[in-house]
């Protein structure tokens, strides 16, 4: 049967039922078809334990054969509900028939356009071939320089059995409050979505300060006329130290000549890794604690250091931080300490944090997002639209996209609105209310609360209740329970803030 044959010793064939059989030979077999044509099979295994000759239909499919299954003229029943089929193998044309159907270009709709309006470069080659190439090149070189100065990785051969992670350049433009470009930002990011839990990462968490904490601290700064400074940590996630063995491909555009096959063994964390936020915060916590700071028990991203005649507060949001103190000397001392341990950018007096503009007024501080609203109106060509006093007109039925246009008009009308923190009242005040099933189509009530310090709101919420209240009193108690939880958190947060105890009235 074999036209050529080579004996083989020591090899086994693994089958689908987990059984194994010895392979004694390998050769070439020529099959004669009923049509008179011949079919040559190569690398055919000789397995004596298999009594029937088996041909893989999937392998024949790779060499332009089709398999057709059809019932015979006589139904031959092998077992219950199992019939014997005839199998016919036919030769496929070398050139498969191509469809003549006209292809229609896929459309994503107008909603998708909002994601591509910024027109950020997607690759390093696209950035370096754009009119803004000098700015992108400077940003990319700055990122690589920070990585090299931080000794983030070392080149080595990939150990057997290891798989390196890929990496990608993320390119963004950062804007000022007036909409002009502040800087060009390049970030090298590891493809951490390919990491395997328990192998190259274990614990993960990403703590960030609550926006409520930021508003409370700004309200306290307004009460006591404190200066608020802002700093930014350059390449924050590069400061964390790794405990796991992680390998990454060399970044695009910076492959070392002559060492193209080597990979980067990460010594410190990199953006994109699952454990990068955790490692960064652990490093920052150790630094702050070693310099006499204490971590707020309610918000782990707020750090306080106080003495008998001065105090300093640091609030961290990933890599942005607000610094406020009793005098400028302690603020400058803290800045020097942070600059000693990390690569920092001093931004002076706080201007914009998380898209919120901080303005100093004659009687305190104000928070607004007028610049952000202006950018949105220009982005969607609604800057010249007439303003509207309400977000929804109850007398009109909503049409497609009309509701969104109305909201943009309402934003224009309220663009100058903001939160103003003054010196009165200087205590924490809270209000709670409930709306009991006002709509016959709805069976759940609405809870709401608001807390103020210095005349401005620091915390608020309005949401549907998770259970069905059977009376107005019951809905009020449910709302009061949620307000009580927030009041307890605010009181505990203020307990760890210098002068914060003065804002907590006795209950």
UniProtKB/TrEMBL annotation:
Annotated source species: Sesamum radiatum (Black benniseed)
Protease keyword on record: yes
Gene Ontology molecular function: aspartic-type endopeptidase activity
Domain (Reverse transcriptase Ty1/copia-type): residue spans on this chain: 150-392
Coiled-coil spans in chain: none
Keyword terms: Aspartyl protease, Hydrolase, Protease
Protein name: Retrovirus-related Pol polyprotein from transposon TNT 1-94
Location of the Retrovirus-related Pol polyprotein from transposon TNT 1-94-like beta-barrel domain: 1-60
Pfam family, one: RVT_2
């Amino acid at each position: 049967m074999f036209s050529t044959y080579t004996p083989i010793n020591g090899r086994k064939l693994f089958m689908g039922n987990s059984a194994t059989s010895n392979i004694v030979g390998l050769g070439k077999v020529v099959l004669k078809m009923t049509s008179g044509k011949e079919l040559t099979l190569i690398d055919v295994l000789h397995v004596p334990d298999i009594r029937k000759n088996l041909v893989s239909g999937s392998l024949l499919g790779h060499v332009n054969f089709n398999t057709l299954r059809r019932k015979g003229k006589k139904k031959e029943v092998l077992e219950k509900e199992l019939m014997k089929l005839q199998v016919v193998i036919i030769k496929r044309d070398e050139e498969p028939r191509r469809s003549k159907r006209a292809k229609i270009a896929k459309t994503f709709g107008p909603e998708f356009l909002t994601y591509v309006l910024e027109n950020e470069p997607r690759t390093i080659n696209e950035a370096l071939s754009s009119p803004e190439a000098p700015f992108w090149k400077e940003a990319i070189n700055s990122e690589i320089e920070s990585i090299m100065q931080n000794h983030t990785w070392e080149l080595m051969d990939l150990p057997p059995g290891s798989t390196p992670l890929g990496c990608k350049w993320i390119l963004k433009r950062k804007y000022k409050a007036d909409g002009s470009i502040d800087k060009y930002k390049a970030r090298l990011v590891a493809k951490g979505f390919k990491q395997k839990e328990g192998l190259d990462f274990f614990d993960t968490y990403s703590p960030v300060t609550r926006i409520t904490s930021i508003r409370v601290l700004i309200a306290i700064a307004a009460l006591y006329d404190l200066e608020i400074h802002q700093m930014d940590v350059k390449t924050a996630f590069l400061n964390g130290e790794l405990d796991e063995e992680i390998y990454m491909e060399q970044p695009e555009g910076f492959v070392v000549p002559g060492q193209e096959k080597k990979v980067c063994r990460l010594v410190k964390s990199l953006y994109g890794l699952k454990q990068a936020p955790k490692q960064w915060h652990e490093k920052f916590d150790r630094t702050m604690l070693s310099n006499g700071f204490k971590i707020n028990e309610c918000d782990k991203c707020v750090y306080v250091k106080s003495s008998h005649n001065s105090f300093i507060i640091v609030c961290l949001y990933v890599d942005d931080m607000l610094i406020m103190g009793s005098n400028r000397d302690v603020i400058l001392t803290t800045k020097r300490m942070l600059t000693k341990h990390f690569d920092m950018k001093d931004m002076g007096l706080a201007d914009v944090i998380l898209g919120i503009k901080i303005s100093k007024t004659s009687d305190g501080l104000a928070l607004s997002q007028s610049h952000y609203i202006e950018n949105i109106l220009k982005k969607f060509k609604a800057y010249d639209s007439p303003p509207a006093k309400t977000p929804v007109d109850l007398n009109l039925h909503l049409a497609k996209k009309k509701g969104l246009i109305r909201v943009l008009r309402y934003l224009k009308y309220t663009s100058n609105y903001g939160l103003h923190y003054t010196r009165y009242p200087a205590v924490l005040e809270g209000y709670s209310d409930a709306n009991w099933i006002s709509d016959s189509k709805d069976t759940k009530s609405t809870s709401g609360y608001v807390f103020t310090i210095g005349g401005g709101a620091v915390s608020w919420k309005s949401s549907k209740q998770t259970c069905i209240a059977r009376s107005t009193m019951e809905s009020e108690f449910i709302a009061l329970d949620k307000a009580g939880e927030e009041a307890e958190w605010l009181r505990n947060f203020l307990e760890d803030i210098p002068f914060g105890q003065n804002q907590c009235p006795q209950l």
